[in-house]
Amino acid sequence: MIRRSPVAVAAMILAAMIPAATPVGAAPARIVSMNLCADELLLRLAPPGRLVSVTWLAAGPAAIDAGPAAGLTLNHGRAEEIARLQPDLVVAGRYTTATTTAMLRRAGIPVQLLDEATSLDGIRDQVTSLAAVIGNPDAGVDMLARMDAMLAAARPAPDDPGGMPGVVVLRPGGGVAGAGTLQDEILTAAGLRNLAPDAPVDGDGRIGLERLLRLKPELLILDSDGAAPPALAREVLDHPAFRSRQAGITIASLPAALWVCPGPWVAEAVARLSAARRTVLARRGADQ
């Protein structure tokens, strides 16, 4: 008697649930996403009717806009429910459960793993690659053209006299955006100087109130939206030491969804940060 592993048995069951393979070279007609960041890209790149399912996160507050997910089947990333949708392409994150993606592949379902983009150039490469995989390269070209146009409009002119105001981004857990991160590049694109790389942080990558005030930022960005639950980043604002020193600090909130998942929508983050920079410069002029 041949004994098969549970994964092999599950793969055999899954294989019985899927249709014949898509002809080689044909664009996938039934695409399923198993990752929020893949959701966001595919909702904007996939031709109408080809994206059949996204994760449940795409219809919730973590999404940039929950509207586009309306009418699609929502999944929780389980192999059985994915196979039942009869996809001819599944897009998953690089760190999506390896057991699930292995089961899908053994069942004959193509799986495309999506790496996390860590720079603006990385976003361009990711969009171009994914648009090609789903057979809609023109959509990728259009998406990137819109991103680059928004970035160009938000970028301060080379001769802008305002310089680069110092900024600190406070994440919900009290962490900060460090050097070499996508957030750091986004701040630079908006004409801001990230002060966090010059600040010592604790073992969890968080910055204390005293260290924050010592940096003397002109702009403090809360990496959350107004409807977010209380977090350490917001508790800082209520501390007496902060309130006594906040006269020269402009405070702005930025929806975390705009840069939690790297994608062309970070251009909107740059635009909002650029507007916050203009507020800082106007305040600077009023104080003189």
From TrEMBL:
It comes from Tistrella arctica. Residues 1-26 form the signal peptide. The lineage of its organism: Bacteria, Pseudomonadati, Pseudomonadota, Alphaproteobacteria, Geminicoccales. Residues 30-284 form the Fe/B12 periplasmic-binding domain. Keywords: Signal. It comes from the Bacteria. InterPro entries: ABC_Transporter_SBP, ABC_transptr_periplasmic_BD. Pfam families: Peripla_BP_2. This is ABC transporter substrate-binding protein.
